[in-house]
Predict the 3D structure of the following.
Amino acid sequence: MAKKKILIAGALGLTGRAAVRHFESKGWDVVGLSRRTPDQAYRDLDGKATYIAVDLRDPKDCEAKLSGLTDVTHIVYAAVYETSDLKAGWVGGAEDFVGINVQMLKNFLDVMLKTATSLEHMTVFQGAKAYGAHTGAMKLPAKERDPRLISVGFYTPQEELVKARQKGKSWSWTIVRPQMISGFATGAPISCLPGVGVYAAVCRELGLPLRFTGRADGPLEAVDVDLLAKVLEWAATSPRAANEIYNVGNGDCFCWLNVYPRIAREVFDMEYAPPHTDYLSVVMADKGGVWDEIVEKHGLKKYPMDHLVASWQVVDFFLHYGDRNRLSLLSTIKLRKHGFHECEDSEDMIVRQLKQMQAQKVLPA
């Protein structure tokens, strides 16, 4: 059997990095695309993947960098352009948020669909914003068969573009809609957990207890980025996943108020105090110097705070994600009925991943 070759767009981000690790571990040939180079993104990136720095916004750069990838059999498209004010992009389409993301995918497909003549499958990412999680209260639980919303977003035009290009072709597509993706990556705009860890470390360094700063006391869902990578392999190789859309989660719910005491006790060995609503985008804005001192004191890898936490605005968003007036809960029963059955305890995942960041010298023990 010929060896499979997968092209991962957005390979140095949260999801892409996990996908690279997973497919490498399964013996696939892996090519990763990113605007950044591996040396710019990470201090110690290893593995056998080939990386190509390309700006998907530029059709000429796509043509020059991608036209030689003739033997690609599978694609994971996890690339995204985010605006400087993420909420303004999500809700109002600021900075041509929709147009740029659609054009990026078009530029990519224009090259790869004529180049990769043996293409078998392509996975494209969406998320809970497909159900309006970013704009207001949504139907619970959200299911893949729910009617589309008219809200601003690039998911629908990207989906229609992929479907139009696939019509009459032998390759297939799968769309995944994960809940809050949890794991570690640098410079990832939609990432929460490193921010939680940095905030806890700064509080401890300042002699303060850990407090939950969000507004939410209700349930929310997450997905372990490594579990998500397994879903990507299943989608790439399972005929049942052809031309289907799947919500993806760990399979349970959790509450921030329950896990924060565990973070204090089990991860950082610090005191926990009652919650106090605050905005980390405000209180952490001047804490870069404190973080630099923590890095030196504990001999951590020299990541500036803004490399670990690309957007405190996003961290605040996810810490408010369990607001009982605006719950975001997705049914994942379709994925499980179609054949993917793995699951994860979300509280245990959060504690484990923070400890892994400590072991990797990203966070202080």
About this structure: The mean pLDDT is 93. The two ends are 46 Å apart (CA to CA). The chain has 15 helices and nine strands. The longest helix spans residues 97-115.
